[in-house]
């Protein structure tokens, strides 16, 4: 029989039977940089969830600039003390404080200090950033957005960086640090459903992406915010070769790479922690941003570069910026007036709210086991306990994406596919590479060329050369027909096939032989296929046994 224990009850009730209690922790995206309270994504989600109830302002503990955990574990206590000192900032507001970009009170410390805050009436008698509170069983929902500040926006968009460095930094912040944060949050709020939101695409490439070339404000904004071309090498290139536009294109490509790598690593942390959890669910919500929703694109869902956000919020933030301009001076105080730049605007916040609400409904609503298993089944039906287990295990893969022993709730939390990752290692043998063909991944419901973006080509990250390790992350919602309300489901992946398509010109000269040492496919952060070695010759393909037949 499939295990259905207390953890996996469907439609978990709100703890007090009434309006849910929700808290929000994280960085400037979680806070809603530049937006008034009722326009923030957390507030809009709460409104959708409750049918119009107001989210208390104090429920949003997130803070601009917050990191998951500072390197020394304490952060800058001087700045924290200054922000908490009512005499220093007598005429400023709580909203202004949270708008100021700094990270001394980390997300871990936000979680530890709940339900208290560090300003106004919520401020404890003394600022003890290490003070911990016991488990709080009154909280029903926790929203978390965090990880990007542990890397730094400048490191992500640095055109002279390399994808391996970004990948390593994202893995550390969005997977390792996030997983530890989730573990502590579960201990702190054992009855709460935790929802981690993915990051939005704030710069993009391609014909539908950010207008890098003709948008002067974007160029200036990127240089102010991230210091593009501020490095000596960049200045030389810019002066000698006019490389400003190229550097901005590379910056956008790096942002796209971060966007998809962060989704993979956040989803991996969520998947693993949900499996290990003995309480309520841990969920992931991917914002349905497309390339046209990035800055300087056709339908931007972000504040433009150099934006101050909503005027009412800007004035409150400005007061704190001015007060904090005296020692100790924070580097981010220079960027403080334009902190909303490239953050979700009202349309973007609404998109994130829709995504969070859709995922919460999907996970907590009552679902028919028969219908779900019927969808997963090859023959469209089930006949008993044994076949239920077998149908679930068809999608387990190498590392157990679905494990019936963990209960239906955990299995069902994997039904929506939020992240797809492909890692291909080409053999070290002489002449084993493939640099003259198109390579695509066919999952039945989704087909994607693996070398079709400026970023992948510019990073030399899709050349399949001798000895190369090529790594691709795919957001199923990015520029596809899938949406947050109608996402890609696991049962819609009917096959896994790697295809090589050689052009007629190169085929006429010589058939392209490609020797693949290994191929791995990850869904929701979990490895489901590991295969190799195998060869592809000319127009050729390799199929893998997933889902199991």
Give a verbal description of the structure.
- This protein has two domains: 19-363, SGNH hydrolase (Rossmann fold), CATH 3.40.50.1110; 420-544, Sandwich (Lipoxygenase-1), CATH 2.60.60.
- A hairpin with a 2-residue loop joins strand 6 and strand 7 (447-449).
- The protein is 34% helix and 14% strand.
- By secondary structure, it is of the alpha+beta class.
- Residues 1-16, 73-77, 118-132 and 228-242 have low confidence and may be disordered.
- Strands 5, 8, 10, 11 and 12 form a five-stranded antiparallel beta sheet that branches. Strands 1-2-3-4 form a four-stranded parallel beta sheet, with helices on both faces. A four-stranded antiparallel beta sheet has the order 7-6-9-13.
- It has helices at residues 28-31, 41-50, 77-84, 94-99, 107-113, 148-151, 153-157, 163-188, 216-226, 232-241, 244-276, 311-323, 346-364, 369-376, 385-393, 408-412, 454-458, 504-509, and strands spanning 22-26, 141-145, 193-197, 282-285, 420-426, 437-444, 447-449, 469-474, 493-502, 513-523, 526-531, 534-537, 540-544.
């Amino acid at each position: 029989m499939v295990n259905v224990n207390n953890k996996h009850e469907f439609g978990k009730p709100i703890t007090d039977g009434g309006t849910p209690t929700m808290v929000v922790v994280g960085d400037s995206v979680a806070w809603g940089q530049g937006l008034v309270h009722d326009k923030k994504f957390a507030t809009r989600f709460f409104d959708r969830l409750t049918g119009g109830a107001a989210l208390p302002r104090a429920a949003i503990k997130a803070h601009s600039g917050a990191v998951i955990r500072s390197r020394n574990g304490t952060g800058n206590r001087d700045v924290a003390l200054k922000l908490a000192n009512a005499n220093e900032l007598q005429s400023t507001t709580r909203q202004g404080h949270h708008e100021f970009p700094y990270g001394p009170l980390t997300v871990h410390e936000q979680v530890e200090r709940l339900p208290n805050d560090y300003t106004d009436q919520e401020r404890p008698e003394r600022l003890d950033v290490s003070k911990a509170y016991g488990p709080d069983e009154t909280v029903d929902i926790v929203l978390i957005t965090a990880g990007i500040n542990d890397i730094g926006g400048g490191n992500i968009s640095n055109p002279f960086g390399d994808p391996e460095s970004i990948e390593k930094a994202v893995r550390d912040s969005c997977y390792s640090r996030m997983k530890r944060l989730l573990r502590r949050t579960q201990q702190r709020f054992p009855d709460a459903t935790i929802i981690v939101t993915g990051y939005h695409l704030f710069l993009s490439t391609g014909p539908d992406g950010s207008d890098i070339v003709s948008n002067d404000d974007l160029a200036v904004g990127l240089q102010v915010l991230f210091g593009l071309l501020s490095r000596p090498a960049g200045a030389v290139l810019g002066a000698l070769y006019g490389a400003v536009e190229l550097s901005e294109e590379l910056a956008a490509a790096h942002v796209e790479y971060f966007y998809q790598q962060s989704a993979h690593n956040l989803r991996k942390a969520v998947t693993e922690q949900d499996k290990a959890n003995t309480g309520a669910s841990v969920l992931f919500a991917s914002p349905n941003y497309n390339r046209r929703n990035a800055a300087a694109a056709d339908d931007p869902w972000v504040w433009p570069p150099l934006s101050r956000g909503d005027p009412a919020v800007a004035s409150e933030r400005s007061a704190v910026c001015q007060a904090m301009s005296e020692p100790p001076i924070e580097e981010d105080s220079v960027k403080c007036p334009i902190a909303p730049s490239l953050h979700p605007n009202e349309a973007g916040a609404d998109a994130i709210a829709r995504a969070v609400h859709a995922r919460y409904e999907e996970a907590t609503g009552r679902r028919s086991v028969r219908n779900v298993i019927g969808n997963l089944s090859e023959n469209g039906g089930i006949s008993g306990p044994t076949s239920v287990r077998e149908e679930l295990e068809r999608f387990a893969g190498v590392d157990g994406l679905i494990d019936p022993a963990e209960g239906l709730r955990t299995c069902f939390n994997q039904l929506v596919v939020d992240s797809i990752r492909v890692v291909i290692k080409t053999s070290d043998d002489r002449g084993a590479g493939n640099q003259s063909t198109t390579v695509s991944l066919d999952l039945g419901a989704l087909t994607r060329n693996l070398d079709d973006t400026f970023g992948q080509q510019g990073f030399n990250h899709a050349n399949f050369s001798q000895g190369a390790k090529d790594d691709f992350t795919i957001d199923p919602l990015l520029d596809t027909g899938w949406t947050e309300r109608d996402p890609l489901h696991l049962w819609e992946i009917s096959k896994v096939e790697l295809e090589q398509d050689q052009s007629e010109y190169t085929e006429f000269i010589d058939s392209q032989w490609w020797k693949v040492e290994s191929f791995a496919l990850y869904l929701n952060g979990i490895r489901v296929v590991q295969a190799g070695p195998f060869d592809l010759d000319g127009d050729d393909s390799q199929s893998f046994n997933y889902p199991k037949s």
